[in-house]
Amino acid sequence: MARLKVQNKNTKAHHEAKKRRQREAMRRLRESRRQDPEKYEEDKRKERERYYRRKEAGQIKTIDQMSEREKRNQGKSGGIEVKNTILERKMQRSSSLNYKKTHHLPLQSRKN
Description:
Shape: extended
Distance between the termini: 57 Å
Number of helices: 4
Radius of gyration: 21 Å
Number of strands: 0
Number of domains: 2
Helix content: 55-70%
Structural class: mainly alpha
């Protein structure tokens, strides 16, 4: 009888596969909850409560609490995120696989 090769659970590939499965499961769960209006409203209410709790605990800063440097950095990182999103959408819209392979648009660095 042939033995199957068992993947070591401590490998990076195993951890990546496990994370990928968890992300997919969470995506399916959120999608199913989004389909039910009552559950969706409940999720939004819980998220709002969580946000206010974190804000009161000081884990989230509002704009008026930020220094000028923090405001600048926040604006910079937001601009980079917008550029990255636009580039990703352009790549998704292009239907040709050759275009995707040969004309890859580099994403902006998130650390600047």
